[in-house]
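Repro:
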Amino acid sequence: MRETGAGEEDIFAELCEARRRDVPYGRVLSSMCTNPHPVAIRAHQEFVNTNLGDPKLFPGTAAIERRCIGLIGELLHLPDATGYISTGGTESNIQALRTAIQLKHTDRHRANIVVPESAHYSFEKASQMLGIAIRRAPLDDLLRADPSEMAALIDEDTIALVAVAGTTEFGQIDPIEEIGKLAQEQALYLHVDAAFGGFVIPFMEKPAKFDFEVPGVQSITIDPHKMGLSTIPSGGLLYRSESLLKLLEINAQYLTSMVQTSLAGTRSGASAASAYAVMQYLGREGYRQIVATCMKNTRSLQEQLEDLGMEPVIEPVMNIVTVGAGDPVGLRKRLAEKNWYVSTTVHPCALRMVVMPHVTEEVIGAFVTDLKKVL
């Protein structure tokens, strides 16, 4: 640190130069994040110095978080759901498994969870942090969780099942109704990771059942900072009942609230305000239009890739396109040389593109033009 402070203009010249080196979203087809809505940015700025970690000092901000959870609960077929605004899917998934451990009262060193092979890498982090084993069930031919394979992995030390609504690699939706029945039959906790799909599936023409509408589902991860168009970081963790959230309570004596349930101690109220503001501003109709446009552009991208001889791994279920490409990793590198950023999947290996709101018809046209040059 400097002995004396630098001038504001010098500081921001350095910051702006660093920011210019970042890749603009208009060249990014690999990310599940996008430009936040202007309303979300304005709300974020208004609440930037609030701390939901001590809600009695910020009762107005805490009320906004409760309203935000209420709006998300309505979206997920449970208006009286409880929960909180987290930093994102990783924190929410870790917290859901903390809840399952507390609920089961089992020996943590023997405990295991059963997840599909398509589960997000955050469950690996949860395994390391919580000291529980992961059992990964094979997928079916459509790259969805196979309930029969999951059932075969359950034993007396299993504490939870996990299903995914919008897998990271392929955007696939697991058969959550079937997995919910399995969870009820086995008296197991079921957590649904809908970090990506939570703000897509409800606004599709024929939405799949994935949320609290399914009786066995106990908690859901959903990220407003993805297709919800909130600012980063804005995640969500919702529970079917308040008793589940209370399992996470720990004493925090020096705070005015005395207890905390979140993983992070200090939590910015800006995340909750941002998510609340954009949901109120767009409403269901606004989100339906955004999702419809993304799906239209998804189909357009897929058709143009098929014209180049690239066949889809699966027909897009959501706004993610995956295609065979001979050497996907090499092609990804050649595209990066032209300042286009896509990603590759692992099982099977394919080229992956996420059609977020910033991936417009114009972006797709420019991308395909450069793709032809590098093929």
